[in-house]
Hints:
Low-confidence stretches: 260-292
Radius of gyration: 21 Å
Largest sheet: 5 strands, mixed, barrel
Amino acid sequence: MAERSQSYRTRAVILRRRNYSDADRILTVFTPRMGKRMLIAKGSRKTTSRQAGHLELFSHANLQVARARTWDIITESATVESFLQLRNDLDRIGRAAYVCELVDAFTAEEDDFEPVWELLLLCLRELDGTSGDTTKWDMLLRWFELQLLRMMGFQPKLFACLGCGDDLLPVENFLQLDAGGVFCPSCGRSARGAEPINVATLRILRHLSRNQWESLRGLRIGLATALAAESVLQRYLVTILERRLKSTDFVYRLRQFPAEEASSGEPATPSAASRVNRRPLDPGNSNSEGDR
């Protein structure tokens, strides 16, 4: 029987990190072949460490790792993609943190799931490379949420009625988050806990769920529909995970205040327009309405 190698090389995206001991860090990373793993970077908090710059949050790195009893040890690291533009913009940082936290929440250690790896990298590259359009980034997040839900087996049922199985028509239907989908009007009126979902909101959710991002880059929808779709997905994620992600609060604060003021520490006095465009992620808000 072949003896297992004492070291291995892997690419990884840094999802999360925390200080450990006097100079070490524990990293939660996501890899293409081994899924999520926890690794230790010894001495990476020292000013003389040559590894520290390659192990920043959201970085895509190439790692040499030695097997160990508790946490495998990172012995070498090299940056593949640093996402520098992303790091210089709080709006991008907030959304990247959300994407990484969502992957962390849905995956277990050492689950081999390469499609999630590809999805994660695509989103980080889009956040790093596209122009400063928060509307487009938020649309990217909605697409990401639906694709991740599909990959993990939690895709909401948006095309056929959960009750009778008939195709959903372009009328006001009924959403039931605990059931994971939508009822037609006939079944929905008697479904406990179901709430109306209008045509525009259901249409955009369906469109995002069945298309690749390349065909959605130029998509523009009304603010009310965008907020309604966001509310549905945020509350559905809370239903599945049984908790609210911490990074949603960071995005909430960024929407309240312009990013440049948040980063400078100056008190923000947002205009009426910025208040509208930076409305919060709110999993508890079930009253948003789509465009009519």
